[in-house]
Amino acid sequence: MRTFSKFAWLAGWLVWGFGLVACGLSGTADTLPTPTATIAIPTPVNTPASVPNTAGESPTAARTNQLIVWTIPSIAPRPEIEGGPILADQLDVFNDSHPDIEVIIEIKAATGQGSIVSYLEAGRPVAPSILPDLILIPTDQVGTAVAEGLIYPLETLLPAELIDDLYPVGRTLGEVNNTLYAYPYAFSGLTHLAYDRNAITTTLPTRWADLNQPPNVMVLPANGKPGADLLLQFYLAEGGVLSDDNNQPLLEVEPLTRALRTLATSQQENLLLPQSNALSSMDDAWLVFQTSKANLTLVAVSQFLRVRGQGNSDGFAAVPGLGGPLPPRVSGWAWAISTADPARQALAAELITWLVNPPNHAEWSQQSLRLPSRYASFAEWPHTDPYIAFLETELERSLPYPVFGSNISDAFRTALVALTSPSGEPPDVLAEQAAQAVRP
Hints:
Blueprint: E1 38-43, E2 66-71, H1 84-97, E3 101-107, H2 116-123, E4 134-138, H3 142-147, H4 160-164, H5 168-174, E5 175-176, E6 179-180, E7 183-188, E8 191-195, E9 218-219, H6 225-237, H7 253-268, H8 282-291, E10 296-300, H9 301-309, E11 315-317, E12 329-337, H10 342-355, H11 358-368, E13 371-372, H12 375-378, H13 386-396, E14 399-400, H14 406-419, H15 427-438
Parallel strand pairs: 2-3, 2-4, 9-10, 12-14
Antiparallel strand pairs: 1-3, 4-12, 5-6, 7-12, 7-13, 8-10, 8-11
């Protein structure tokens, strides 16, 4: 068994020679900068030999005995986070089988100025010798990383069976121009309905309009991203687009009006709990769901897995749509190789292969309450639970969460808050306002 004494954790600040300073850890782990923590782990006996450093080579070419990996606070070998001890165990095994290479794992912010991609963009011209070889990045940053030349194609580096085994949405999330640049490690963002089986004893409908009948009462975090995302899904289902032919942000009034009318009807027919207007998170909505007359709510997979692990037996169902269930929208976290050195590319690919080996991937994803990206990994989850079969079906029909600016998300949230307020404006007015907010 792994013992944490084998890992050397370094606390404090990482100050780069060109003036970049890692920010302190606080708040939500996936979104805010953190102190840099380092684990020194020896590595492979079968690592391809590196070319000796000679004049004119990259400053990183001499780093033949190191593999630098950057990850994020919420996916890291730390004992205090879900899945952290399992990931540490897996790195320990990798450690034991690779005595000639030191793997340096550093923790960076997931997004923002101190994020992995922003550090790479700033650091490549001035400090290439301390840049990573393998990185874990949000899938919505893959396109930026490719455009900036920060990551490299994976098809020739990873076994074909790993790539072929990805869920379709995972392949799409990791590709740019039909080339796989990032290997999805875990999915995020998939939502569904949860309901009180004691209050609702029949099968939930697959059309949203059919939810608008007693005894159904839904609590929705309308004043936050989950509510905005639900409106986004209806907007996309109505045929709306998020950008024009020049890739400029755009909201179309007509499909947005129809999407808002769908939710306005639910409010008028008393499906939506009035308190929804003040709620901003799924945790807030879950608390109201547990303590009020609401018998339906929107939940994230990680949230529902956690409460099921605590003995909760509420029902679950796909989110109803216009003529059938809405396709789930997912994003995720993906491994990408950020070194041009062939020897360390091969070593980084070996580490990816080890981490997504089905038993490893399945164990980590279960413990971290995250959905794995591989069919073979999910097949190792306990299929005696009908919820797991439901999630497999949802993943199979999932689509990528679209990439767009915060102004669009803000416009959706603002429109939904106004729609669900006591003096809500008509959907067509709110749609016009949202479109103008995105593109004055």
